[in-house]
Amino acid sequence: MDMRYSIIGLGKLGASMAAAIAKRGFQVIGVDVNKNAVDLLNNSEAPVQETNLEKTIKENKKRLRATLDINEAVLDTDVSFVIVPTPSDDRGAFSLDYARTAFQSIGKAIAIKKKYHNVVLTSTVLPGSTRFGLLPLLEQESGKVCGRDFGLCYSPEFIALGSVIHDFLNPDFTLVGEFDERAGGMLEKCYEQIMENNSPCKRMTIENAELTKIALNSFVTMKISFANMLANFCQFIPEGDVDVVTDALGADQRIGHKYLKGAIGYGGPCFPRDNKALAYTAQTFGLKADLAETTDYLNRSLPDKMIQSLKNLIKPGMTVAILGLAYKPDSHVVEESQGIYLARKLSEQGIRIVAYDPLAGETARGELENQIRIYTSISECLQQADVVMITIPDQIFKALKADDFRRPGLQEMIVIDFWRILYKKLINQPHITYIPVGRCIDDNTNSNRLAKLWADTNNI
């Protein structure tokens, strides 16, 4: 099956998918309304920042081109993946404005195309969006009938920014919401040829697939929040260590180790909004998604609780260095970043904030509107600090040594390590007050508290 593909939307996922599919030996046409993105791809340059994207584009430039014209792309390919923004509104719903525009143009192209064409929506949407919000546009603009003249699927990807190409080509599974057997079967065969691993394909109705996408992300965030709760518990029990606890929990196959790492909250462009979307979906059914709402509340309240717990250590007049402004390691993305939130909140309390991030410094500078000083050198940043907060487990932060936290004229530096990545290096260092969030640092106080608790209980 010598398929040709068009990718409509050249953002981080779309551009990476285009490059990845070309890498697997297929002809790919990228489409975007942004002329600069189209020109960059045609010049074998990455239109967005993503790991290995430009390298993959250059290595496969003979099979990859871009255009502003959806009509051209649809007529010259067999399958179109639509990966356009679906931004959240205040209710938590996902807007279909960009998708509608794309589907209208695709419909017009299908109207003059003689061959069967499979349209695959990849953007995250709410249940019912594809069939009832977008399919009518395809049929209206094309004058043709879905199932007979063209195909339609909903097939989101499960990727992480910073590793999109690898994740796309090596998924745990592929998810296909199909209008009918023909469209779903065609897409499954495409995935069999595209993917590098032998991942199973889960085929289902379009609505089941739409729900699966937001449910999966919501479940993962619930797991993260549960681990964060355990990290808080472990700070109050003698020799408490969340890594020991979650390592044991994750050994149970019903739970697993992935995302079970007590630390700071989650962020990024997907996780925070999917719980709100699930809650909104429940509301439209006359139901309540209490678990999703609670998970979202716990995550959003976590930074404030951490600031409150540290109020005796961090005082106005101090300088706090935040290491990590992206929402995760190896990313330029600062959307819903916990580091950004901490910087803002502490700055509002009269704390001077400096920061460093290996990739996201420029992006964060625009987000924070010069509220803080962002350094391009980690050593310069640390030389300003009375207190250091490590907010992401980036490799460059894992490589730091105790001597990196020495500042002339400062007897003792406070290091708050949300991920415990420097525990072995910094614990018991005479010039460092080291606070590994998720581990007990005061066994005596916690032992006495537990002893009193059980003594009082025995007296009842």
TrEMBL record:
It catalyses: UDP-alpha-D-glucose + 2 NAD(+) + H2O = UDP-alpha-D-glucuronate + 2 NADH + 3 H(+). Its EC number is 1.1.1.22. Residues 321-424 form the UDP-glucose/GDP-mannose dehydrogenase C-terminal domain. Gene3D superfamilies: Cytochrome c1, transmembrane anchor, C-terminal (1.20.5.100), NAD(P)-binding Rossmann-like Domain (3.40.50.720). It comes from the Bacteria. One of its GO terms (molecular function) is oxidoreductase activity. Transmembrane segments: none annotated. It is an enzyme of class 1 (oxidoreductase). PANTHER family: UDP-GLUCOSE 6-DEHYDROGENASE TUAD. This is UDP-glucose 6-dehydrogenase. It comes from candidate division CSSED10-310 bacterium.
